[in-house]
Amino acid sequence: MFNRAVGLSRERGVKWWSKAGRQDPRIKELNVALEHSRSQLAASEQRVREAESRAEELARENQVLGHLAGNLSAFSHSLEMTQTSFASLAHSMEQERQYAIRIQGIASSNQASIDAIATNLEQLADASGEASEKVRTLARRTADATAEIGTLVSAIRADSAQSRGHIASLAEHSSSYSGVGQSAASTMRQLLDMSTVAEGSASVSALRSFCELAKLDHLIYKFRVYKVLFGVSQERGSDFTDHTHCRLGKWYREGDGALHYAHLAGYKDIDAPHAAVHRCAFDAIDAHASGDTAAMLKAVAEMESASLAVQEGLERVVASGEQSPALLQRRRESEAQSR
User: Fold this and answer.
1) Which end of the chain is more exposed for a tag (fewer CB within 10 A), N or C?
2) pTM recorded for the entire structure
3) The domain 2-338 is classified under which CATH number: 1.10.287, 3.40.190, 2.40.50, 3.40.1000?
């Protein structure tokens, strides 16, 4: 008798649904919208994967740019040290030039003394023959040596001046290279900042896309439940997934949700109501199968309440990511480095 009543109830539900679909345009539109939503699921999922892939690529580019900027800064620092070394060398060469000037002054002073000695010796040479000749020879040698010293000092001064010119030129080039290095490092830092902003935007877009996709998944999930309750669908409880194996559940426990977004506000508030949505769906289907209308209605009400809580939690997660995109960027950087 009970089975007959259940069969009649299911048959009436089918007739009511078919009749309502023909008479009520809202139900007809809902069916059309459901089919359209299913066709868009695959495209939406592909866009989510592309957005996540772009975010990971930007994280890797961001890391490379960071290393390059650091290397350029180190190169600029090395150029500055080289410039300092050239300046020190120029100072040493200037001291050497001053010493050469002093030597030349001493040589010039000695020249006058030597000339006076040579004059006296020549005067003495008039008084002594052989001794005079030796003295003259010594005087000539002394004069020649003095001339050679003067020539050497002049050459040293010329070489010193030329060296100073080369060193000044090298220092100028070093300064120019240092400026170029600093400019390149600044440009790389700007590129790094731009890459960081782009990566944050891509991460937020991927998060928003997935959350909207999860909402659509559960809307279709609930619609399937209602079709069973109205007797239009012959699906059983075993045909429905639990909260750990649906798209949102996998994302939450082992996918990108657990890897990149677990630190965001609202993330931990999703799990309990999400589990309640699936549990109440099973309870409603079981109550319908056993003919317990009161229990079925209670389970449906709890399923809808939990579904709203899941949507609110997803919105909080997205809002947290949009307000603090730097958190997403740092988390993806740490993930890229760990790989």
Assistant:
1) N
2) 0.54
3) 1.10.287
